[in-house]
Design goal:
single chain, 6-stranded parallel sheet, 14 helices, 6 strands, globular, RNA-binding
RNA sequence: GGCGGCAUAGCCAAGCGGUAAGGCAGAGGUCUGCAAAACCUCUAUACCUCGGUUCAAUUCCGAGUGCCGCCU
C-alpha cells in the first residue's frame, strides 16, 4: 500500500504558497518545500520564502535547513522527503509538497537511480579540471568512448552533464547510463495527487513584475551584501540563483542602475517560469489548474483532495 | 556658428561595390545527486531621406535630416 502524498507544483508566482496554506486550514497536512533555493538559510528575500506568520500557522519542512556553503541536492532531498513522509503519515497527517523545482519533484515521486555516493571534492573537481584542460569538445569526444549511450542524449556543450558523466565513471568504474538503466522512472513510489498551477502567461508576468518590485523594495541588494558580509563567497551555489546573481552584478557595477537590475531580474524570472511550466506539464497525471481566482482554484483543489484522501 | 563622428530588425551590433554575421529580446523544447543550474531548436525581405557615379550602392560622392562629441 503506497503512502498518499499531495504535490502542488508550478512556476514561480503561480500562487503555490497561498493555496497550500488554504489547504492546510481544511485538511490535516504538513507542508514540505521543494524549491531548491528555499533550503538555504539567509537567502530569504529573493527566494520569497513564506513569512514567519505563515510558517507558524502550519508546519513547514525543509526551509532553512542548510547553510549556503553546504551541499544539498536531489538525492538528499528525496531521502529527506522519504523520512518526512514516514513521520508525517505516522501522525495521521498527509504530506503536502509545494515547490517549483521539477527535478526534485521527479526524484521524490520516482526515486533516483542507485548511483553510489561520490566524493565531489575529489571526482567533481577532477572532472571540472579535465574539461577545463582539454576543452569541452574533446571531453565530449571521450565521453562518447566510455558512455556512448549517455553522450547520445546530451549536447556536446552541456558542461554540467558531461562533468557529471565523468565524475560517475571515474568514481565507480561504470558509465552513468549503466545506473540510469536501473531506474527508468517507471513506477511511482507514492500514491500521489499532483496539481500543476499554470495560470495564463500574461497573468504570471504581471505577478512576476509586481513581486520583483517588492523584493527589491524589501532590500534584495542589502540582503546579498549581508550574506557576503557573513563570509560566504560569491561563487556559492545559491548566489547563482535569480535575483542574487543579478544583485552581485549590480554590486560589481556590471549592471549600472537599479532599474536595469529590476528589468534583468524580471526577464530572468519570466524565462525561468517558462522552463518550470515546460517541466511541470509533462508530469504524469498532472491536474492542470489555470484559474486565477483563489476561490475557484481552492474549490477545485479542495474537492479533488477530499476525494483522494 | 565651425569642425569631427555616427545613422543597419523591438534593442545592441558586425560587414561588404553584386540585396547583410552575431548577440539580446520573442516562441517552443530537453532534463536522474550543481536544476533559480546547464543545454537544444525555431524566428525578422532591417542598411535615415533625396540626388549623383556605376552594369550594379546598404557600401563611393554630394546635399538634407537626426543624434553624439569637441571648439567658438
Amino acid at each position: 500500500m503506497l503512502k498518499k502524498i499531495i504535490v502542488i507544483g508550478g512556476a514561480t508566482c503561480s500562487g503555490k504558497t497561498e493555496i497550500s496554506v488554504e489547504l492546510s486550514k481544511l485538511f490535516p497536512v504538513e507542508i514540505i518545500n521543494f524549491d531548491s533555493m528555499c533550503f538555504y538559510k539567509y537567502f530569504d528575500i529573493g527566494t520569497a520564502k513564506p513569512d514567519n506568520e505563515t510558517r507558524a500557522s502550519v508546519k513547514h519542512h525543509l526551509i532553512d535547513v542548510k547553510y549556503p556553503d553546504e551541499e544539498y541536492n536531489a538525492r538528499m532531498f528525496s531521502e529527506d522527503a522519504a523520512g518526512l513522509i514516514e513521520e508525517i503519515t505516522s501522525k495521521g497527517k498527509t504530506p503536502l509538497f509545494t515547490g517549483g523545482t521539477g527535478l526534485y519533484m521527479k526524484s521524490l515521486i520516482y526515486g533516483l537511480s542507485p548511483i553510489p555516493e561520490i566524493d565531489k571534492s575529489v571526482y567533481r573537481r577532477k572532472a571540472v579540471e579535465l574539461i577545463k584542460k582539454i576543452g569541452i569538445t574533446a571531453a565530449y569526444e571521450k565521453l562518447k568512448e566510455f558512455d556512448p549511450e549517455y553522450a547520445g542524449k546530451i549536447s556536446s556543450c552541456d558542461s554540467q552533464r558531461i562533468s557529471r558523466a565523468y565524475e560517475v565513471y571515474s568514481a565507480t568504474g561504470h558509465p552513468l547510463s549503466y545506473y540510469l538503466a536501473e531506474n527508468p522512472f517507471g513506477r511511482p513510489l507514492y500514491d500521489y495527487i499532483y496539481f500543476n498551477l499554470n495560470p495564463p502567461r500574461d497573468y504570471l508576468k504581471s505577478r512576476i513584475t509586481e513581486r520583483t518590485r517588492i523584493i527589491m523594495e524589501n532590500g534584495l541588494v542589502n540582503e546579498t551584501e549581508s550574506i557576503l558580509n557573513r563570509g560566504y563567497k560569491a561563487d556559492l551555489k545559491p548566489f547563482r540563483s535569480i535575483g542574487y546573481r543579478e544583485s552581485l552584478m549590480y554590486l560589481q557595477k556590471e549592471i549600472k542602475t537599479e532599474n536595469d537590475l529590476y528589468l534583468k531580474i524580471v526577464s530572468s524570472t519570466v524565462k525561468y517560469a517558462k522552463r518550470q511550466a515546460t517541466f511541470f506539464k509533462k508530469t504524469e497525471n498532472a491536474m492542470e489548474v489555470n484559474f486565477t481566482d483563489l476561490n475557484r482554484k481552492l474549490g477545485f483543489i479542495a474537492k479533488t483532495v477530499e476525494g483522494f484522501l
